[in-house]
Amino acid sequence: MREAPHLGLIGCGGWGKLILRDLKALGAKVTCVAPGERSRANAVANGADHIVPTLDELPEVEGAVVATPSDSHGAVLLSLLPRNIPLFVEKPLTSDRATARLLAEKAADRLFVMDKWRYHAGIERIARFAKSGEIGDVLGLRLYRLGWSMTHNEVDPIWNLLPHDLSICLHVLGEVPPVATAFADGLGPASSGLVAVLGRDGGPRVVIETSAHHPVNRRSVILSCTNGTVTLNGSFDDHLILRQGSPNDLNAPEVEVAIQNNMPLEAELAAFLRHLNGGPAPMSSAAEGAAIVERVCDIRRMAGLPE
């Protein structure tokens, strides 16, 4: 039997500690790069096998997971590239266009982005509705990511929220369409939220509303097709709501579609471990991650916000 893979985890803060928890639950050996007192305490509490204070002191590992602040992703990944190992980085790939392009060019076959929503059972089922044609041709996709929290200080909330919805769009439609229009939502600081419309003439229309300064908490995804509409109303729901019939039919019957809800963080980490053991690559390649960064920059520019 093959020994448990040895991974490096760079960063063990509020999200990194959950990554460590799940990696250990999946049987991995983990060395944490944890420079601060809090991150070291998280590493100890969640079962790190070894802890080192700097990236230079990370021993030889089979792969690495990067969970540092978003604005440091580029520098950390560029430092790891000479090791020639598979890399899994928390979204977004970077928070700037040029570095995302560089990484996609230099590590196309071994750098992947942790877009956890692509591993959510509800999103996977919605994608099957879209691709199978079982409720007709796709008319549009609407995504809401609203709440009252400004928890990440390294970049503004749009950089933390919007990549989630763009990755869902990629998973459901197979692409992230170009931007038609975008504007800051007017609730709170301009950089805390926006509304964006994506799509091509004659193609599905994607509407995204995202805000970290909204009084109502909402995480929902709605796919509209010619013969039905299917909705995931919340992250932890165990079913989708399917309205069968034309979107114009207000009396269309409503049906619950059961899903086996999972923990998408653990699911994506399991996919990375399988890859280290010779399995297929995780979803969200470096090229796809860079495309999402490009689209975030396009949306921000159109909304009058700095890239």
Task: Supply database-style keywords.
307 residues; alpha/beta; Rossmann fold; 2 domains; eight-stranded mixed sheet; six-stranded parallel sheet; 8 helices; 14 strands; globular; Gfo/Idh/MocA-like_OxRdtase_N; NAD(P)-bd_dom_sf; Gfo/Idh/MocA_Oxidoreductases
Describe, in plain words, how this protein is organized in 3D.
With 307 residues, this protein is of the alpha/beta class. It has two domains: 6-116 and 265-284, Rossmann fold, CATH 3.40.50; 117-262 and 296-302, 2-Layer Sandwich (Dihydrodipicolinate Reductase, domain 2). 31% of the residues lie in helices and 27% in strands. It contains eight helices and 14 strands. It has helices spanning 16-25, 37-45, 73-80, 97-106, 121-132, 157-173, 264-276, 286-302; strands spanning 6-10, 29-33, 50-52, 63-66, 87-90, 111-114, 138-148, 179-184, 193-198, 205-211, 213-225, 228-232, 239-244, 254-258. The strands form two sheets. Strands 8-9-10-7-11-12-13-14 form an eight-stranded mixed β-sheet, covered by helices on one side. It has a six-stranded parallel β-sheet with strand order 3-2-1-4-5-6, with helices on both faces. Helix 3 (73-80) links the parallel strand 4 (63-66) and strand 5. The protein is globular. The mean pLDDT is 93. It comes from Aminobacter ciceronei. Residues 7-108 form the Gfo/Idh/MocA-like oxidoreductase N-terminal domain. This is Dehydrogenase.
**Largest sheet at a glance?**
8 strands, mixed
Could you name the CATH class of the largest domain?
Alpha Beta
Low-confidence stretches: none
Structural class: alpha/beta
Helical segment count = 8
The CATH level-2 architecture of the largest domain is identified as 2-Layer Sandwich
Number of domains: 2
Strand order of the largest sheet: 8-9-10-7-11-12-13-14
Tell me the Rg in angstroms.
20 Å
Quote the average pLDDT. Answer: 93
Order of helices and strands: EHEHEEHEHEHEHEEEEEEEHH
Distance between the termini: 49 Å
Query: Level of helix content?
Result: 25-40%
What is the name of the CATH superfamily of the largest domain? Answer: Dihydrodipicolinate Reductase, domain 2
Write down the oligomeric state.
single chain
Percent range for β-strand residues: 25-35%
Q: How would the global form be characterised?
A: globular
DSSP strand tally: 14
In CATH terms, what is the fold-level topology of the largest domain?
Dihydrodipicolinate Reductase, domain 2
Protein name: Dehydrogenase
Organism: Aminobacter ciceronei
Pfam family, one: GFO_IDH_MocA
